[in-house]
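Reader question, answered in our methods column.
A reader sent in the components of a multi-part assembly and asked whether the whole thing could be modeled at once rather than chain by chain. We filled in our standard form and ran it. Here is what they sent:
COMPLEX SIZE: two components
ENTRIES:
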Amino acid sequence: MHPKNNDILRNYVITTENAIDNIFSSSIAPKTSVSEAMKYSLDAGGKRIRPSLVMEFCRVISGDYKKSINAAVAIEMIHTFSLIHDDLPCMDDDDFRRGKPSCHKKFGEAIALLAGDALENLAFRVIISSDYDDKTKSCLISEISDATAKMIDGQVRDLSFLERTDISEDDLLEMYSLKTCALIECSAVMGCICGGADKNELMLAREYAHNLGLAFQIRDDILDVIGDEKELGKPIGSDADNNKTTIVSVLGIEKASELAKKYSDNALNKLDSFKNNDFLKDLTKLLLERYK
Amino acid sequence: MHPKNNDILRNYVITTENAIDNIFSSSIAPKTSVSEAMKYSLDAGGKRIRPSLVMEFCRVISGDYKKSINAAVAIEMIHTFSLIHDDLPCMDDDDFRRGKPSCHKKFGEAIALLAGDALENLAFRVIISSDYDDKTKSCLISEISDATAKMIDGQVRDLSFLERTDISEDDLLEMYSLKTCALIECSAVMGCICGGADKNELMLAREYAHNLGLAFQIRDDILDVIGDEKELGKPIGSDADNNKTTIVSVLGIEKASELAKKYSDNALNKLDSFKNNDFLKDLTKLLLERYK
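And here is the structure of the entire assembly that came back:
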């Protein structure tokens, strides 16, 4: 990534984390018995891809990312709630997340369950307590609730695949579209809404993010085979150990890599319609080539 | 309850259940792999107290309950999501709910977890997809997200009490205010908002519902000791079996009954400020005297 774009990305990460801190010192998220667990998982790092997409699309459209900060934080909260619940013993049963004990290992299952519930709720609270006008709030909440419903549908399909041996490439891509792409599309679209984009820009941003999401998820599956445990902060080979069908187990590493490249190229093409697309192009390439 | 009021209550129950059916045949809740579990728990009966309060307060304020149906359904979804998660093995570990297997006994823990997550999200979706104006949507979502945060805080406190032996009456009442009263207050207030109430009416409705909620929860604790398993649809004595401190274990049955009566009387007094309060008065008395 170009150093200038790396600085932009770092600023988005810092902005996200500061905004989270501010929300937890405000009346939007008053201190409760579950705040510590919520904050622990929100603070656990991660690439902050979704909030960065929100802010960058807002900047691309309007020249200013700052009015999208609340939307950016809201989507990170939905993402984090899904990770906390995904890690629970009745789901993926993962003890580690980003190199740290997962929420239920640190706080127990009941608190992790409720921290996830509370973060899902807080995402809506952050939007509704912001100073967006009522129409913008409605649009943003509509996008978030639509994406959250799709993400959950994707998680259920993912679970149902564990019992099946006949899963096709199409089945997997449809599941990825729900489980992974929905929130990434929502991020790009929310940034556009905050920036005041027109319908055509919204559509192009959504198509970009859909392709980016597929490339991102396929790269995730590839990293579960070829990745480095220290870099990833979690054990590799877990998909194979769990007999999980992934795009890699269906197509093999080489064809899966070609497919990720195809979706990444589609995403890059969609960006040609936007001015000031330099950062997004660099980010798109980075996500395809990443090792964590 | 007066037969006329009983008919009104029955109409609210039917209206709630029909509205739920309509939402599940619409694009607001498109058929997904988790719809069946969501619908199973929503359909499991229950008294529909919260949606009835929403609709009745809307009728008391404006003469027409119909414009509050979406808000009524939304609060029932939040309530149902909380019950599904509450019943999970890592929480109360209850196998039965209203005489039927609890969601996780019927569908497995992972699906129950995700069905709860999806219902929490759907509550917001129902409001945002309704034809309320944007300002009303914002007010309703603000109330729902505030009440949900409080309810979750109450659940965490309830759990933390299991490890303590020094819990006072005040500790319990504060926990009940969060865990039980928050959604009941939200119901009354949302009905008022849909009906176009003024600030004073909102405040009185909230105070009424707060007192009703406390009376309701104390009656619940009493029924866990003196209730009939068939009527309740769940085993009695579970609080004592779990060494759970309740208002009954702290005060004894007699004083707890007096306290419930006190809160119920407070609630009735608040109703004097509203015209057409006949149904609400009858409902308040019914809830204090109920055996299920």
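What stands out: Chain B touches chain A through 45 residues (CB under 8 Å). The radius of gyration of chain B is 18 Å.
Send us your own complexes using the same form.
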